[in-house]
Each structure stands twice: as structure tokens, then as C-alpha cells.
Amino acid sequence: MDKKFIVLCYIFLIFIFGCQKAEISTDKDVGIAEGNIKSETAEKMAAMNVITYDSNEVAVVIDELAFLPAFIHIKKGTAVTWINRDKVEHTVAFHNKKTPTEVTESDVLKPRNEYSYTFNEEGVFDYICGIHPFMHGGIIVGNPPELAEMMEFAEDTEPPKIFSITPNKVSVNGGDKVIVKGENFVKSTTVFFHHLFGEVKFADSKTLEAVTPKHYALKMDVIVTNPDGDHFTLPNSFEFFGEEEQQIETIEFEYEEKRTPHFTGSSPEHGSTANSPSTISISFNYPIVKGSNILLYDLGGNKLTEGGLIVTRLGLEISNVPKLNQGTYKVTYHAIWLGGSAHDGEFYFNVK
């Protein structure tokens, strides 16, 4: 197969808003087996592009919260190695779109760690980082029948830039409108606050209005991304401040249960009253990935313990629940699905 760039609009539709511009490294240690795989020239590509490889070994670099390159086309039997060049930990979680319930995921990759997988099955594979689900990638293996229907050329645009953000400091509770000034914005330009998207209204090519999401207190980068994958980062330019709103305790049990998609049940059930449980769990009808978590709090906001994935990936469990005194307790959970969808839920129960 000749090396070529194919722009995607329909393939990996769920990825479009998480894509970022990727830069292919020319460092000698990008490849496998002491640099066997390396790019011939330094070049930049949009993360919504697919690069085709003839080699039996391909390297994908993880850097600055992105997969580089994000989308690749390989032949059957090719070994893909992900190399973590970032300063934080990542995972690689993927599935064949034909069998979305069968998830394969790497161990947590610390900086400088690698993970390799040989793709012997033809198909289209979606993947994300389980810790940072906004990081997306995709792999086309061979020439699956659905490939021709997924390709469509997208319009190229000038790279966007940010000149200013006003105001640049808002409440952690979200819902604040900020004005982003810059250039080369288009109607589908996104505004990304650390790891969450703001709700964007396009004013003109030099002005975006964004409503901030709820976020914990942090000073962060802001990234704008055009539909063709070109993006611009304004570092340390924005800050969320203050304490998150605390839920007011009431005498009667009136706490609302918040469910994630694919929820099938919890133990204890929301609103139930029982003796101190030995385990606490939540179950789903679709597998989740690493980075998902479940935590137990008292109503004072104190975290008591936490848990993680069960073996089947169809739920989360806390197995080391301490002895609980009489009262009401809150369980929160963060569930990440392979498509990059991440949702937060919570439920409450009483201990008699």
C-alpha cells in the first residue's frame, strides 16, 4: 500500500470533537526495535486523517494528550506499538466496531512505557485512552467491506489562533459565558477546557462565545480545534476557582439518583436501608474501560473508600467497605465507554 492521507468525516464519527492536530516525530527512537520505524520527513497532519503503512511494525507516539498519528491504515498481521512520551499515564483501549462489547486494553502506561498489539483481524478499530477519554484514535486493518462507505473528503481550513479569553477566570460551578478572540474560526470550531468541552456559539471568524463546563479548581490550557483537525493551544490561560457547590442535607431521604447510560443496577439500591454492606457495586450492560471509578462518601463530603473495574468490565465495585455507622451515604461513579463517552452518576443509601 502506498502512503497516503485520507480525510475522514464519517469514520469514527464519535471521535470528531476529540480530534487534535498530530505531529509525526522524527526522533530515532520513535520506532520499534531500536528505531526500525521512523518517518522520512517531519510533517504535520490532521488527527482526522488516516496514514497508510506498508510496514509490519508501526509506532504511535502518545504525547501532549494525543495519539500521533491518531488514525492509521495497516495490513493484517501488523504490530502496532504505542509509546508514551507524555508526562502523565495513559492506557490504550480498543475494539473492532463489529464486536463492540469485546474490549482489549493495555495496562497503565507510565511515561516511557510501551504497549504492542498485533492486528490479525480485518476491520475498523476504535480506541481511546481510558484515563483521558477525550483522546481518540482509530485503526483500519486490511480493506474491510465498509471502508468505501466511510470515506469522504473534508474541507481544509486555515489553522485557528487564540488572542484572548474574557473573562479568563470563572467559577468551578460552570455556566459562565466567555468570549474567545482569535482568527480562522469556523462554525464547528470547538473550545476545550483541560479535559472538557465548552458549549460553543460561533459569532464570526474572529469571535467565539463559549459556556464553561463544571470543573474542579485548576489553572489550565485552552485549545480551539477546527473540523479539519487544526488546533491552537493558549497555555495556562484560563482558571476555574472556588469550591464546588455542596448538596444540602435534608432530614428525610430525598436524595436524587443520577444514572449513567447503560445502567442496569446497583447494590445497595438507591434509597434502600440495610446493615453496613460488605461490598458496593454498580452494573452496566456495556463494557467500560480503565479510568472509570467508584467512590464512597459520607454526607460531610469525606471520601471513605474507593473501588474499580470488575473482571467482566460490566461494572464497578468497592470490595473493602469499612464498617459504616448509622446514617446516609453517597456513592459516585465515573464510567468511561470505549467510544470516549464519559458520564458521572451517583446514588444514596441508608445504614440502619
Q: How does this structure look, described?
A:
By secondary structure, the chain is mainly beta. The protein has 3 domains: 146 residues, Cupredoxins -  blue copper proteins (Immunoglobulin-like), CATH 2.60.40.420; 81 residues, Sandwich (Immunoglobulin-like); 89 residues, Immunoglobulin-like, CATH 2.60.40.1220. Helices cover 1% and strands 45% of the residues. The protein contains 1 helix and 30 strands. It has an 8-stranded mixed beta sheet, with no helix packed on it.
Q: How does the SSE layout of this entry go?
A:
Layout: E1 5-7, E2 22-24, E3 43-45, E4 49-52, E5 57-62, E6 67-68, E7 71-74, E8 78-84, E9 93-96, E10 104-105, E11 114-119, E12 123-128, E13 136-141, H1 147-150, E14 161-166, E15 169-171, E16 177-183, E17 190-193, E18 196-197, E19 199-204, E20 207-211, E21 218-225, E22 231-241, E23 263-267, E24 273-274, E25 280-284, E26 293-298, E27 303-309, E28 315-318, E29 327-336, E30 342-351
Parallel strand pairs: 4-7, 5-8, 7-13, 15-22, 24-30
Antiparallel strand pairs: 1-4, 2-3, 5-6, 8-11, 9-10, 9-12, 12-13, 14-16, 16-20, 17-18, 17-21, 19-20, 21-22, 23-25, 25-28, 26-27, 26-29, 27-28, 29-30
